[in-house]
Amino acid sequence: MVVSGRFLLQDTTDSVNSGDIMDPVKIPKMPKAEYDSLIKRQNVSRIAFCAGGAPYIAPFMYVFDGKYLYFLSTKYGRKIEYFRSNPRISVEIEEYAPDLSSFTFVSLQGSLEEVQTPAQKKKVRELFVEMIRSRKLSMRVLSAFGHSPVDPPEAIVNEERSMVWKLVGVKDIVALKNG
Q: Which CATH architecture has domain 31-177?
């Protein structure tokens, strides 16, 4: 068996066929309920931006309301420039065993949209505070949102140090699992 890219290749040569034919063993796809569950279990994603002449990938925490993924972004860095020049992105969320005996991932291609309405921004920020509290995350995570680790999580709601983005217009979803 040979590993090549995303596929495991199995030698399918037999006595009838003398060629070296290798058929890939594809990683099974996940149904929507399974990848929604993966999205709910995790809280860190990677976003690939399409600007600047080469892809730019950055980690982002997110919340999922059952329909949309939301992200908070600090108001500085090249991600802001890339978002403004091309909001088309790819989001990847993964989960794997430490020894990689099992792994799952979902990749969603769509666009980021900045949430503008104060009520919606407040609701999303409150979801982030709820996630931080319920998952007992380190307060150091607040630096990802432009806050000090000594700030209370509620500072995310009370002070607008970050932008609120929403994933919209999802055109393609790839969700695979091996275990």
A: Roll (2.30)
Where exactly are the structural domains of the chain? 1-26, 31-177
Identify the bridge partners of residue 71 per DSSP, sorted by sequence position. Answer: 62, 165
Tell me the per-residue pLDDT of 63-107, one tens digit each, with 9 for 90 and over.
Answer: 999 999 999 999 999 999 999 999 999 999 999 999 988 899 999
Count other C-beta atoms under 10 Å from residue 51's C-beta. Answer: 18
CB 96 within 8 A of CB 157: no
User: According to DSSP H, which parts of the chain are helical?
Assistant: 32-41, 78-85, 118-134, 155-158
Nearest to 174, CA basis, from 28, 53, 71:
28
29 band by pLDDT with thresholds 50, 70 and 90: confident
Pairwise CA distance, residues 50 & 52, whole Å: 7
What does the block give as tokens for 124? 């999303």
Considering only CA atoms, which of 123, 119, 93 is closest in space to residue 105? Answer: 93
Q: Residue 112: phi, psi to the nearest 5?
A: -90, 140
For the record, the structure tokens of 125 come out as 């920020």
